[in-house]
Design a protein that fits this description.
About 5% of the residues have low confidence. The relative contact order is 0.10. By secondary structure, this protein is an all-alpha fold. α5 crosses α7 and α10 runs antiparallel to α13. The chain has 14 helices and no strands.
Length: about 300
């Protein structure tokens, strides 16, 4: 018995619908596969570019490291890259002469004596001031904070002469304490600005709950605010330490010329008719190693603080 006209029409429509849907699904799958392949290719090309850029950026550091292990005689014959084909030319004689130089070793200790107190003072004072500006009510708070923000645009060079006269009158010129105070004063505006903005993002309910439990302001600051602000404080400490450690201008003006920091000591080691590479290369690399160690030691806190500030 032959099917009716309506049954034949329904079968035809059903078959057409099935074929159309299958064709659409197949085309969509092909498109998504091509898109994924294109995304992977683009991601791979980006990774290759980033790796090449990182290697290119590290070439000067690698050259400084190799130069610190090459004798001046061999360096005069060619560049540091010659060691890549003749590794036997590497020697530790430069470091032996450097560590036997009392001026360089003393300058490293003096740099530590300047960088560590200047960093700790900025962290402690900046944390207290940031908490006060964020959560304490006192007359003129907003105006004082605007003054602090305005101090961010004051360049260091403007204060060299007046501060030199001030330090000379009170006996702090060419002293380690004078250098520490100068770095602390110019590091505080940024510290207060950064930590105040970070502490202000702490939920008010959390602080009110601590106050209801009987916590005073000092205990609230130590037990609640500081742990929550740890990433921001670590980031600030890294910035401040790197700035003080690598500074040369302030040290050249205010530090004791007989016992200068390492940046000034290396500058003083430059000979009249040459660069004194056998002292400068290992000295510069040693002065660079300490900030790198500090950065990688607090890398996780630094990234957390930066990301938290970006999200907020």
């Amino acid at each position: 018995m032959s099917p009716s006209k309506s049954e034949r029409t329904g079968s035809t429509v059903g078959a057409g619908s099935t074929m159309g849907a299958g064709s659409t699904v197949g085309a969509g799958s092909t498109g998504s596969t091509v898109g994924r392949l294109a995304a992977r290719a683009a991601g791979g090309a980006l990774r290759v570019f980033l790796v090449l850029a990182a290697l290119f950026w590290l070439v000067p550091t690698l050259g400084l490291l190799i130069s610190s292990f090459v004798s001046p005689t061999d360096l005069n014959k060619g560049g540091w890259w010659q060691v890549l084909t003749a590794p036997s030319r590497l020697t530790a004689g430069n470091y032996e002469r450097l560590l036997a130089n009392d001026t360089i070793t003393g300058s490293l200790l003096n740099t530590v004596a300047i960088a560590v107190p200047a960093t700790l003072l900025v962290l402690v004072l900046g944390a207290f001031a940031g908490y006060a500006f964020a959560w304490l009510e006192f007359p003129g708070r907003d105006w004082l904070f605007l003054v602090v923000v305005g101090l961010l645009v004051v360049p260091v060079q403007v204060a060299l002469i007046p501060v030199s006269e001030l330090f000379g009158s009170i006996g702090l010129f060419e002293t380690t304490a004078g250098v520490v105070l100068f770095h602390t004063a110019f590091g505080l505006p940024f510290a207060v600005f950064l930590l105040r903005n970070f502490f202000a993002e702490i939920p008010r309910e959390l602080l009110e709950a601590a106050r209801l439990d009987g916590a005073g302001e000092l205990r609230l600051f130590a037990r609640v605010v500081l742990p929550l602000g740890g990433p921001a404080i670590a980031s600030l400490g890294i910035f401040q330490f790197l700035w003080v450690w690598n500074d040369m201008l302030v040290a050249l003006v205010f530090a004791d010329s007989a016992n200068p920091p390492v940046t000034v000591a290396l500058q003083q080691q430059v000979r009249q008719f040459g660069n004194n590479i056998d002292v400068l290369a290992p000295g510069a690399f040693l002065s660079m190693v300490v900030p790198l160690v500090v950065f990688f030691a607090f890398q996780r806190q630094f990234v957390t603080g930066v990301m938290a500030g970006a999200i907020k």
